[in-house]
Amino acid sequence: MSHTFSGGCSCGALRYESVAEPVVAGHCQCRHCQRASGAGHASIIGVHQDALTITGEVKYFDYTADSGNTASNGFCPNCGSNVLGKTSGMPGIMAIKVGSLDDPSWFKPGMTIFAASAQPWDLVDPDLPAFPGMPER
Ligand SMILES: [Zn+2]
Ligand SMILES: [Zn+2]
After folding, report:
1. The CATH number of the domain where 25 resides is what?
2. Ligand 1: distance of its center to the CA of 103 in Å?
């Protein structure tokens, strides 16, 4: 994976830049990600918050995740792009929705989580380890 990377929302008002590589990468098939993305899953990388610089306004929507953790979606209040995310299950880590990357092509998913709520038409790489919920840590 590239060492530093950047990305942002559709309208360009919300931007981010990371100076570290992701510590986690995968697909999430939970119902919240399905609703927030409008698709069968969200593709997500996680980076340490202190490696990430965010510019522009982010609005966070807090919810109780299927794991019981408190999670939030971070989106651009202007264009509604779903760009960032946080969960109390991974303190200090900011999730980034892969579709918001300036170059999403280097993403290498390592797992599928919340596979228990996968939709029958949403096929991801069957060779990836799949966890029914959050992986045990
Ligand atoms: Zn925007
Ligand atoms: Zn999810």
Report:
1. 2.170.150.70
2. 17
